[in-house]
Design a protein that fits this description.
22% of the residues lie in helices and 21% in strands. Strand 8 and strand 9 form a beta hairpin. The chain is built from three helices and nine strands. The chain has two domains: 31 residues; 143 residues, Rieske [2Fe-2S] iron-sulphur domain (Rieske Iron-sulfur Protein), CATH 2.102.10. It is of the alpha+beta class and 198 residues long. It binds FE2/S2 (inorganic) cluster. FE2/S2 (inorganic) cluster (FES) binds next to loops.
């Protein structure tokens, strides 16, 4: 056995004690830090509601924010997109949003939204949870054929959704994209994570 000089042994013990105290100190100081957060910062840290400003979104543009670790899509739909939604029914599994788990009751309409202009959805494929790509433009340039009406394409296994998040027939995803709870705080401010009161 190698003999450790007394001084070195003492230093090691002191170092261990200091480290342990440091850890306790960190624990004690972390609690007041969390408590000192503002209510909205605390809500965010705990996955509470988030506010999204829609005022800069142009028709046809989409933004993505994170809520509870999930991508939330916000698409501003043009009049042309809205009129195309009405003609998509024949190739969709659930055009009338009959599967209740996929949207709140106030989003059970053709656009699956509170305001037709703004489509808000959780951007996770309902097959195995990949993030589909946005393919908003219609037609051949999308790479999905001449008759593509605009929507979302999941490259993992080929599922397709329209611009209301409604799933196509004959793809692996079984249901429409999920619409999160949301409400409008002002004309162009939406809050995700809180239900709209009808
Ligand atoms: S995860 Fe999207 S098609 Fe499989």
């Amino acid at each position: 056995m190698v003999a450790v000089p007394v001084d070195l042994r003492r230093r090691r013990i002191l170092l261990a004690a200091t480290t342990a105290l440091g850890a306790v100190g960190l624990g004690v100081s972390a609690v007041p830090f969390v408590l000192s957060m503002t209510p909205s910062a605390r809500a965010k840290a705990q996955g509470g509601p988030i506010e999204i400003d829609l005022s800069k979104l142009e028709p046809g543009q989409m933004l993505t924010v994170q809520w509870r670790g999930k991508p939330i899509w916000v698409l501003r739909r043009s009049n042309e997109i809205l009129s195309r939604l009405k003609t998509n029914g024949h190739f969709l599994v659930d055009p009338d949003s009959e599967v209740e788990t996929q949207q709140p009751a106030y989003a059970k309409n053709i656009g699956r939204s509170i305001k037709p202009e703004f489509f808000i959805a959780i951007g996770l494929c309902t097959h195995l949870g990949c993030v589909p790509s946005k393919k908003i433009a219609s037609g051949a340039l999308s790479g999905l054929g001449e008759d593509w009406p605009g929507g979302y394409f999941c490259a993992c296994h080929g599922s397709k959704f329209d611009l209301a998040g409604r799933v196509y027939k004959n793809v692996p995803a079984p249901t429409n994209l999920v619409i999160p709870p949301h409400r409008y705080l002002a004309d162009r401010i939406v809050e995700v994570g809180v239900h709209h009161v009808v």
